[in-house]
From TrEMBL:
Source organism of the structure: Halomonas salifodinae
Signal peptide residue numbers: none
Stated name of the protein: DNA-3-methyladenine glycosylase I
Top-rank taxon: Bacteria
Entry-linked PANTHER family: DNA-3-METHYLADENINE GLYCOSYLASE 1 (PTHR30037), DNA-3-METHYLADENINE GLYCOSYLASE I (PTHR30037:SF4)
InterPro entries assigned: Adenine_glyco, DNA-3mA_glycosylase, DNA_glycosylase
Length: 178
């Protein structure tokens, strides 16, 4: 199976994500939440499908503003489940809303989502999965692994010989810093 670094650079949709986002550390709450939402919605689908719907997700979830999404009620759920621009799966929609509430609670307990991640780093993939499953909804091994690789907490997003890897290392991802 080809590595993402082999196929993404020449693809019009995958290339920008591969070259400028995937694996780079991020600390901004909305950006971390977006990445979690996208990874949850990728389950069972192609990453290309999710990237093609990214703008619609951004609009549907109000810029991934955690405080807004955390208080979504039945009207917002119905709006999301009727929105053909996103992935209309009740379990995924419910998980996104629930997880926004969890992220709000992480502000109180840890100072925020980024601080929570930092407080638990480094963990093995299996330990991260256990932690995410205790904390969030709809977060299995693949979702957790991709979320953590995409945000710089686990290595493996890029091959060592990928030109993007040197830029990621210069950005100081958590996995490279111990």
């Amino acid at each position: 199976m080809p590595h993402y670094c082999d196929t993404a650079p020449s693809h019009p949709v995958h290339a920008p994500y591969h070259d400028h986002e995937y694996g780079f550390p991020i600390a901004d709450e909305a950006s971390l939440f977006e990445r979690l939402v996208l990874e949850i919605n990728q389950a069972g689908l192609s990453w290309l499908t999710v990237l093609n719907k990214r703008a619609a997700f951004h609009s549907a979830f109000e810029g991934f503003e955690v405080d807004r999404v955390a208080v979504y009620g039945e009207d917002e759920r119905a709006r999301l489940l009727a929105d053909a621009g996103i992935i209309r799966n009740r379990l995924k929609v419910d998980a996104v809303i629930h997880n926004a509430g969890v992220i709000r609670a992480l502000r109180e307990s840890h100072g925020g989502f980024h601080a929570w991640l930092e407080a638990h780093h480094p963990l093995s993939h299996a330990d991260w999965v256990r932690l995410f499953r205790r904390t969030f909804r709809f977060t299995g091994p693949e979702i957790v692994g991709e979320f953590l690789m995409s945000t710089g907490y686990l290595s493996g997003a890029h091959r060592d010989d990928c030109p993007v890897q040197s830029r990621i290392l210069a950005a100081g991802p958590a996995w490279a810093c111990g």
